[in-house]
């Protein structure tokens, strides 16, 4: 996919002249039509073992870019060590009215209120089944329909539908764009959710790892409750974090749009919450750090805060697919310098857990 990286500087002005959602759709279609070629040769020093899976490198594509499993192989060909499709819900749903995706160019950020727009389980399952045998780690991010009478039941359906094709599951209970969804992060509801999901997993012949994706806007006591609920093997990993509702210090005229904020402004908050979760789980639960990753230094910051793996998405809007190889080159140089990335995991967690803290 070297062609995609070369073409982006030319295409970016044209894409950014369009509304953000139209540009995203065109980008996705272009990536599925360009000749892929083989994925870049992975640096063995960047290999990661986490929740029973062998990742060629720690950099992944976060959910939201490829909602309907249209381009997992194209994204892996860019050099990502893994990719995550979704969020997918049992039934197709249109999501919120447009416009619902906004670039905040002055802040290197994005606000979205998409509302889990997707084609439903059947469409994504068909595509993932068709690529079976191609290799590569492809996670499936599952959610609940907005009008569901049993939201937990929707997640259980997701486990049953994709158990045979998912490398891992992400249970997304932290999107701010589905009313009431974040309530599932409360201790009582989370314990019930995880109990039903694990019962559903036990009925499947194949049991991919299951991760929980949490919000960055949680108070300290809420993080403690989540860490307790996730203990004892209730989940195989935790993703920190989803988008934020906070809006501090933004300059863009779109800053007051409703929805979840992602991109560079999320880096301090999401990294602080990641470090807190690493300390609360005593480093015993693999964590994926997401939020504000935009270069090699910020990816390394996530690892030093406690992440085993790192994901990004919003930075691609501004920097394009060449960002992937740039970050991996930085991490390779750091691994050569220090002898190991794994040895740096969590080294700055204690300091970062309190950096910029205001009691959240």
Describe this structure in words.
With 360 residues, this protein is α/β, with parallel strands linked by helices. The protein has helices at 2-16, 20-33, 72-77, 121-130, 151-162, 187-202, 220-229, 267-280, 296-305, 314-319, 322-338, 349-352; strands at 48-50, 53-55, 59-61, 82-88, 101-104, 109-112, 138-142, 168-172, 210-214, 237-240, 260-263, 287-290, 309-312. The strands form three sheets. The protein has an eight-stranded parallel β-barrel, surrounded by four helices. The protein has a three-stranded antiparallel sheet with strand order 5-6-11. A hairpin with a 4-residue loop joins strand 5 (101-104) and strand 6. Helix 5 packs parallel to helix 6, helix 6 runs parallel beside helix 7 (220-229) and helix 7 crosses helix 8 (267-280).
Helix share of residues? Answer: 25-40%
- Spatial order of the strands forming the largest sheet: 3-4-7-8-9-10-12-13
- Which regions are unreliable across 5 or more consecutive residues at pLDDT < 50? none
Encode the helix/strand succession as letters.
HHEEEHEEEHEHEHEHEEHEHEHHH
The beta-strand count equals 13
Structural class: alpha/beta
Cα separation of the termini = 42 Å
Largest sheet: 8 strands, parallel, barrel
CA-atom Rg in angstroms: 19 Å
Determine the number of helices (DSSP H or I, runs of at least 4 residues): 12
Shape designation: globular
Beta fraction of the residues?
Answer: 15-25%
The average pLDDT score comes to 95
Nutshell version of this structure?
The chain has 360 residues and is of the alpha/beta class.
């Amino acid at each position: 996919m070297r062609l995609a990286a070369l073409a982006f500087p030319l295409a970016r002005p044209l894409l950014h002249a369009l509304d953000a959602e139209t540009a995203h759709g065109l980008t996705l279609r272009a990536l599925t039509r360009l000749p892929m070629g083989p994925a870049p040769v992975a640096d063995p020093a960047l290999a990661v073992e986490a929740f029973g899976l062998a990742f060629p490198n720690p950099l992944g594509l976060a959910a939201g870019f490829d909602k309907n499993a249209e381009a997992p192989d194209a994204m892996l060909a860019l050099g990502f060590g893994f990719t995550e499709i979704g969020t997918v819900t049992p039934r197709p749903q249109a999501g919120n009215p447009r416009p619902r995706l906004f670039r905040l160019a002055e802040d290197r950020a994005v606000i979205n209120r998409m509302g889990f727009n997707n084609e439903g389980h059947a469409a994504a399952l068909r595509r993932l089944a068709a690529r079976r045998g191609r290799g590569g780690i492809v996670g499936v991010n599952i959610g609940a329909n907005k009008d569901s009478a049993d939201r937990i039941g929707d997640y259980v359906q997701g486990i049953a539908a994709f158990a045979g094709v998912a490398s891992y599951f992400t249970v997304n209970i932290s999107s701010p764009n589905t009313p009431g969804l974040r309530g599932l992060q409360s201790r009582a509801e989370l314990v019930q959710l995880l109990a039903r999901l694990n019962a559903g997993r036990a009925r499947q012949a194949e049991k991919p790892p299951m991760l929980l994706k949490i919000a960055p806007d949680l108070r300290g006591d809420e993080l403690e409750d989540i860490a307790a609920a996730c203990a004892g093997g209730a989940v195989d990993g935790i993703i920190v974090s989803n988008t934020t509702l906070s809006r501090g210090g933004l300059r863009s005229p779109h800053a007051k749009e409703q929805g979840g904020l992602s991109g560079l402004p999320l880096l301090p908050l999401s990294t602080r919450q990641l470090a807190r979760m690493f300390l609360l789980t005593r480093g015993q639960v693999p964590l994926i750090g997401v939020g504000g990753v935009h270069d090699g230094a910020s990816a390394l910051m996530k690892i030093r805060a406690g992440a085993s793996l790192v994901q990004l998405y919003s930075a691609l809007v501004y920097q394009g697919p060449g960002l992937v190889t740039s970050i991996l080159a930085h991490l390779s140089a750091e691994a050569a310098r220090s002898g190991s990335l794994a040895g740096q995991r969590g080294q700055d967690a204690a300091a970062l857990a309190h950096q910029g803290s205001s009691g959240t």
